[in-house]
């Protein structure tokens, strides 16, 4: 995905980069899908660049360290060793990945005087990995800078947040999201692109997931529930059918994010008595989105819960 927008974030970053005292640790904060990871890589490339020296891409640069989500099991590890790309990875970043980075930090940078560590996202760090990272943030090696991508910065430890400078990212305009989709998916149906832009609420990464997951029919089912309610559970049955009997975690995550976006978009035009129910449903969808990566949900029950939250926010023919 091509990085677009975020002029304010770039201005703040480059002002700090040109100052005499560049802060050693940054939190790149904002909703998922805004391009914070791409920004981190581009910003790190600017940070470590040395005049007159050719610079590899951020993902291959010896002075830009990015801990991975490791392969899910030994079979997936073998696939990675064989050079395959479709490797299934763990949902979390374990302490071993942070310790590997810390071992690298005991040596000097390879191409210049600076080194960058990108944690993308910091939300996925295991508890032990967080504690290990904290030690590096407390005593950073000279010339080492940390960029922590955070979708929910409030969930990071206060001791982590207190050692970092916050760089906030706002949603993009619809025109920028549309431009990203045209670049990344020129073959997509224009109507599908339009629906993806509407559902993404300024997050091009979410819009691309929408296209990848083919969520158009799911969007229509959600909008129907939100508009009419679902007294007889029929629309919830349609929604569950469109989601599928055995959706993987990525699809369920995209579905929940879509439901959250649909509810949020309905808030602005809702009458005041209904706004409280919309806000409550949105908060529950945010909670569900946070639980999906680690909890084992029955897909059918999860689909019915999502449908129930949408129905609770609908026009008052069904109570919350």
Automatic annotation (TrEMBL):
InterPro entries registered for this protein in UniProt: DNA_Rep/Repair_Clamp_Loader (IPR050238), P-loop_NTPase (IPR027417)
Gene Ontology terms: biological process: DNA-templated DNA replication
SUPFAM superfamilies the UniProt entry points to: P-loop containing nucleoside triphosphate hydrolases (SSF52540)
Region (Disordered): 50-90
Name listed for the protein in its UniProt record: DNA polymerase III subunit delta
Ranges of compositional bias, category Basic and acidic residues: 69-90
């Amino acid at each position: 995905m091509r990085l677009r927008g975020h002029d304010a974030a770039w201005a703040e970053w480059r002002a700090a980069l040109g100052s005499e005292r560049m802060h050693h640790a940054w939190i790149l904060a904002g909703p998922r899908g805004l391009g914070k990871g791409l920004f981190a890589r581009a910003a790190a490339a600017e940070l470590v660049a040395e005049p007159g020296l050719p610079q590899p891409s951020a993902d291959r640069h010896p002075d830009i360290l990015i801990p991975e989500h490791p392969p899910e099991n030994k079979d997936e590890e073998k696939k990675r060793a064989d050079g395959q790309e479709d490797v299934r990875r763990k949902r979390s970043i374990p302490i071993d990945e942070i310790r590997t980075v810390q071992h690298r930090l005991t040596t000097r940078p390879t191409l210049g005087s600076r080194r960058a560590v990108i944690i993308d996202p910091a939300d996925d760090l295991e508890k032990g990995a967080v504690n290990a990272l904290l030690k590096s943030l407390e005593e950073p090696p000279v010339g080492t800078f940390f960029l922590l991508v955070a979708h929910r910065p409030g969930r990071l430890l206060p001791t982590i947040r207190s050692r970092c400078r916050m760089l906030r990212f706002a949603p993009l305009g619809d025109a920028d999201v549309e431009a990203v989709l045209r670049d990344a998916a020129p073959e997509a149906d224009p109507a599908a692109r339009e629906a993806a832009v509407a559902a993404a609420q300024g997050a091009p990464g979410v819009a691309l997931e929408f296209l990848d997951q083919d969520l158009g029919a799911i969007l229509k089912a959600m909008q129907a529930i939100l508009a009419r309610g679902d007294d007889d559970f029929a629309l919830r049955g349609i929604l569950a059918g469109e989601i599928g009997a055995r959706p993987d975690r990525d699809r369920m995550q995209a579905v929940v994010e879509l439901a959250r976006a649909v509810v949020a978009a309905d808030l602005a035009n809702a009458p005041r008595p209904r706004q409280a129910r919309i806000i409550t449903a949105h908060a529950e969808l945010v909670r569900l989105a946070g639980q999906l990566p680690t909890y084992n949900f029955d897909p059918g029950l999860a689909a019915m819960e999502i449908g129930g939250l949408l129905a609770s926010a609908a026009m008052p023919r069904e109570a919350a």
